[in-house]
Amino acid sequence: MNLGDFLINWIANAPVTAVPYALAALGLIVAERSGVLNLTAEGLMLIGALAGAGTSLLFVGHPAVALLAAMAAASVVSLLFAVLVVVLRINQVIAGLSVVFFCQGLTGLIGTLAKWQNKQLSGLAPLKIWPLSEIPIIGRIFFMQDPVVYLTILIFIAVNFLLFKTMLGLRIRAVGENPGAADAAGVSITLHRILAIVAGSSLIGLAGGYISVVSVKLWVTGMTGGRGWIAVALVVFARWAPWPALAGALLFGCIEALIPHVAAAGIQVPQYLMLMTPYLATIAVMIWVGAKDSRGSQEPGALGQPHVREERR
Amino acid sequence: MISPAPAASRGLGRLTLDVRQDLSPWKQTAFVGSSLVFGLAISLAILAAAGIPPLTLASELAAVLTAENLRGVLVQAAPLILVGLGASLAFRIGFWNLGIEGQMIFGGIFAAAISIYDVGPQATRLLLMGSAAALGGALWVLLVVFLKRRFRVNEIIATLLLNYVAMYFLFHLLYGAWQDAKTAFPQSSPLRPFERLGDIGYGINSGLLIAIAGVLAAGWLIHLSRIGFYTRFISANPRMAKIVGVPVQAATLWIIAASGACSGLAGFVNVASQEGRLTQSYANGYVFSGVLIAFLSRNDPVVVAVVGFLIAVLFITGQTLQVFYQIPLTMVQMIEAIIVMAVASSEFLIRHRIRWLR
Known about the structure:
CATH architecture of chain A: Orthogonal Bundle
Oligomer: heterodimer
Number of strands of chain A: 0
Number of strands of chain B: 2
Largest sheet of chain B: 2 strands, antiparallel
Order of helices and strands of chain A: HHHHHHHHHHHHH
Strand content of chain B: under 5%
Distance between the termini of chain A: 74 Å
Number of helices of chain A: 13
């Protein structure tokens, strides 16, 4: 195999591995913009992955149905997190970790009892955007991806618009930046935070569903393998802004897509050391962020702080 | 004169939230206790839905608590107490050490290295392995302390990600240089008899002695030592601590190193007692167990010993259910998470008063 084929195969695969990172990071950004430190991605992605796989195994329908089920399931479970942190005002790190490990346990239990392990799923055919798909190289990379890849870009445009150009987005950001002031202005903290968590979690669920239904095409216990934690790091890297998160997701997509292609190209690298690269790259990126000037970051002012209106009569 | 009329009630009234000044210890215990019962009830309901009726569960639990199986519980309690200590020491100083599995893995690897490279005489071999394990765990967590101090890397993400790195490094060894040549399984060759933690009579494994020594040492460190005093000062007010000349950096470093050393020892105990060799999974499921034990014991080393024992009962019951009812072991993790959520929720009721105003 020559270098050109290797590069094209690698880059053409990168969007598929980038989509879960992009959607999960975007979902986290929506929730964190409302001031809730959200560590639940790893767990909710598993919920989405299991719900997607289960739906396609139980009802042989269009994969779109499975992806919708993944979104719905993650949203429902995220209500638990929302109640814990918004209503009961539990420490958001403890609540986030608990939800992740709860989801790991629950998906392991359901997946095993329902015997959904290692069952092949049909997947989603790529969408050829003819005639652009016929262009050499570029057509293969940009215009022969599956529909979710294109949908992801639309979702980013929509969420960006919602967060920064609408009244609802302004309220969500106000609640995250200065809940006291937002409360005084009559914006419901509880409502907007729960809304942001649940809406963001549907995107995280989609990210998980995409992994099981479209990318890997089967369910395996714990199959997200730390991608949720990487998404949490991506949010810090992107400084809570959507477009940099997409760029970061592409970077990690490229890194992850490289792993199987290196082995396929017959390059001798110790396999398990190669599998470390996404995690080490994440830490490298975090170091780069930390070394950089922190001005210009859009980190929400009230991130991680529960809001208690102390005296209300 | 007519006093002004009270404000007209608006419909059904509304819920309000006050911050409580304080609540009697009895009521606090009652809140925590009832939320614990609530959490366990939910766990029971989920298990019943998974095909384990409560009565079956009760008989399995009774079986676990017989003298014969209690031995297994005590063996399992040792690593759990150690990871509980590891988590609570770090949490005391406000450091989210979620890298317990990675530290256990490196503890195990360091201990196994002493065995594989045949370092030192047989008589001191176990001591050397234990020290190496503590060192391995401490070094792995200090890497994160360095990243945090030098580059402001968030320790929650860094410790969690380094668990995966440690896991793949372990796989790299077990599928490569350290693979058992006889069986070709991805595990190291068995430890020799003098490298194993044996029984010390009454069926009690000597791993438990290490855990108890850890409890005493951590208790001394937290409650009696100078560093423990500094720790309380730092967690109460780090800026003030620095101003009055408390060596904040050094004290933090020692406490976190001790935390990593405890986790490393937990890895050593699992490798040298239960498994008898380096396996792929001897650290699986310990991160959240450590968090849970530290959380329930309010980071108090002495209470950690009690809670660690109770979680060991949960672990062994989970293993029984896995063997006889094909319930995956992740179920234990789910119950742990439910318990943490329930108990954490009770803190809300302790700190706030909900009132219905009309």
